[in-house]
Amino acid sequence: MVTELRRDLGLPATTAIAIGAMVGSGIFILPGIAYAAAGPAVVAAYLIAGILVLPAALSASEMATAMPEDGGSYVYVERGMGPILGTIAGIGNWFMLSFKGALALVGGVPYLVYVAPTLAEYILLIALGLAVAFTVLNVVSTKSTGGLQFAIVGIMILAMGYFVIGGVGGISPAQTAGSFDLASEGILAATGLVFVSYAGVIKITAVAEEVKDPGRTIPLAMIGALALTTAMYVLVVYVAIGVAPDLSPGGEFVPAGGEEVASIAYAADAALGDIGVAIVVLAALLALASTANAGLLSASRFPFAMARDGLAPPQFERLSQRFKTPALAVGITGGMMMVMIATLPIEQVAKLGSAFQILVFVLVNLAVIGFREGAVENYDPEFVAPLYPWMQVFGMAGGLIVLTQMGTVPLAGAALITVVAIGWYFVYARPRVDREGAVRKGARENVGNRAIEETRRLFESDETFDVLVAITDDTSPAMKRELVRTANDIGRLRTTSVSVVEFVDVPHQMFAETHPTVSTEAPEWLNGVRADGGSPANKGGLQYRRIEAEHPAQSMVDYATYEGHDLLVMERDRADFHKRLFGKGTDWILENAPCDVLLVDEGSDPAANDHPGVNDVSEVAVVANRGPYDPVKLLIADSIAEEAGAGIHLLQAIPADAPESRRETIESYHDRLISTLTVPTRSTVIETDDEITGLARFVGDAELLVTGVDRTGLTARLLGRPGNRLVDSVEANAVMVKSHADRKPGLVQRFLMDHVFG
């Protein structure tokens, strides 16, 4: 993409930014605290955390080479998962990096006080002064920031290398026993605590637009930085616990209180004396300064990237004409860090928000799956993450396990940031954006593809489609004929076998027989239907049964189950509320039928002596209910239209504020359906906030409406069915299709289908 930002960051500087964003509190503050939770196994905790972060690093590297844009994980989550999750990732990352930058400045000053006690009363002023200096530096030049980062990290690595080499000879084996014990008590809690030490590994993607040759540089820098940092953590902590009797705050070696932040300095004192202390303090100051600098640099790119996508005010996108840096974004981020330093308990707040970073890693792994599986044009990464998708699944599962070990308070902090981000999205961003993520778009297309294939299989299948026409004493003569005609019409497209069964309700008898009375003599009205010719594929003719039973509804379900019918055709019962509430009659059959059910409406005038036949139909309106079209619904509509010489009108409603990509995907799905159907077909995608009213208006002059039974169970009894309301609101005759429960998606799948498909 064309950008005004300068690509000044090469491999050394980019690697240094990644290391600097990680190495800070993770090595100079957390080891003692984690030691208190897991003892010597804290070494293994650092190693496990590094391994769990690897999938997110690989996923971020892949997406960075495909989209080398400033914004990093925000860009990937927003493009892959959609604007709302992108907003959460963007705002959350901005807060987290600002918190960590401020924490690094405040946490680094005690190391300075350790060697210069007279500065203790100036801690706040020193931290604020450093925040101002880093803010100015980032406004003036990204290149200078990268160069400084490289110098800081280089000195820090040399210093910590000296600590490891000088201290390894003084390690006490008894103190390091169990360092790699994966079954140690508290190791998961310690892993959750130190996990945040690696949070900066993907932060270099936030400045990807300023990296030279991003396709090569970013993967090398990210993976190299992770490997080097993990090795540094393991070696430094191993040596520290080996030379110090007890590294935990308040233990034998490290005093409790504010000086606990300097625990590595105490370990250096034990191993190397005053020279070692001076070197470690210098490394700590440089590391924490680099964390603050890298945090400010990366955090400022999140509002910059969000502004380009319409999720933040456009002023954050503007670059300084002189320095070609996002000066306002840098200034606001630096100002936020100063406010945090001056007013908030930053260390505690940063710890509370650390859980959010794990959620970001989970979203990053999920986003790469969305890009791989979704319909994303021009997604062509130069680097491809290996072992897909198992690497991503491992990363997500590991992150969620660690998240459960962090306690209630950090989770509450992550939840608070999430709520704030969602509020910002709905108040500011939602009216300004009209797009969706790759996962949602891809899921919709996958759902549509599966629906197309199921429809084609149903239309092209050679198996006999067994249809049961169920009639009762209350079924009018006209409706009886219409039910049989409808069943026969399916044979226009599929080989069918039609059984007409009349279920006669008989009074309860004290000593009744244990089975219903069955007769096979066909009535005169059925012979008239046979004379109409029926279905050309119904080679076996119509089979008739008359069954006398005390419970007709139960008998219908039992008969359909015993005979193995594929479709039950019956009259739609406009039941009173009390019947619906207690699940009687038709509602009971819908919930218990072993097959698909087709309800035929008796028309707007139930008292009429004749029911309009299919020969009077010139157009069949077919409505999609909560997702793609049910294949049986399309088969029935196409069969009726084929018999009547009619056309089909596909109707599907989406929210008025739906992204344009949703309409385009559904229109493409309709086009593929049209190629499957056998009669002339047109389609309309309706944008409306009142689905029933919008659909009823577009049913128009169609003589027949084919819709679905879109709600069953207790919710249908209490709230009614949208499909019923639609049928009652139009003048057209109607048939309603209810899919069998074995083919119907589960609750979670239905929710996702509703969310992604319309």
UniProtKB/TrEMBL annotation:
<feature type="domain" description="Amino acid permease/ SLC12A">
    <location>
        <begin position="16"/>
        <end position="412"/>
    </location>
</feature>
<keyword id="KW-0812">Transmembrane</keyword>
<feature type="transmembrane region" description="Helical">
    <location>
        <begin position="383"/>
        <end position="403"/>
    </location>
</feature>
<dbReference type="GO" id="GO:0055085">
    <property type="term" value="P:transmembrane transport"/>
</dbReference>
<protein>
    <submittedName>
        <fullName>Amino acid transporter</fullName>
    </submittedName>
</protein>
<dbReference type="Pfam" id="PF00324">
    <property type="entry name" value="AA_permease"/>
</dbReference>
<dbReference type="InterPro" id="IPR004841">
    <property type="entry name" value="AA-permease/SLC12A_dom"/>
</dbReference>
<feature type="transmembrane region" description="Helical">
    <location>
        <begin position="122"/>
        <end position="140"/>
    </location>
</feature>
<feature type="transmembrane region" description="Helical">
    <location>
        <begin position="327"/>
        <end position="346"/>
    </location>
</feature>
<dbReference type="InterPro" id="IPR006016">
    <property type="entry name" value="UspA"/>
</dbReference>
<feature type="transmembrane region" description="Helical">
    <location>
        <begin position="152"/>
        <end position="174"/>
    </location>
</feature>
<keyword id="KW-0472">Membrane</keyword>
<feature type="transmembrane region" description="Helical">
    <location>
        <begin position="352"/>
        <end position="371"/>
    </location>
</feature>
<feature type="transmembrane region" description="Helical">
    <location>
        <begin position="409"/>
        <end position="428"/>
    </location>
</feature>
<feature type="transmembrane region" description="Helical">
    <location>
        <begin position="220"/>
        <end position="241"/>
    </location>
</feature>
<feature type="transmembrane region" description="Helical">
    <location>
        <begin position="186"/>
        <end position="208"/>
    </location>
</feature>
<dbReference type="Pfam" id="PF00582">
    <property type="entry name" value="Usp"/>
</dbReference>
<dbReference type="GO" id="GO:0016020">
    <property type="term" value="C:membrane"/>
</dbReference>
<keyword id="KW-1133">Transmembrane helix</keyword>
<feature type="transmembrane region" description="Helical">
    <location>
        <begin position="9"/>
        <end position="29"/>
    </location>
</feature>
<feature type="transmembrane region" description="Helical">
    <location>
        <begin position="35"/>
        <end position="58"/>
    </location>
</feature>
<feature type="domain" description="UspA">
    <location>
        <begin position="468"/>
        <end position="600"/>
    </location>
</feature>
<dbReference type="InterPro" id="IPR050367">
    <property type="entry name" value="APC_superfamily"/>
</dbReference>
<feature type="transmembrane region" description="Helical">
    <location>
        <begin position="275"/>
        <end position="299"/>
    </location>
</feature>
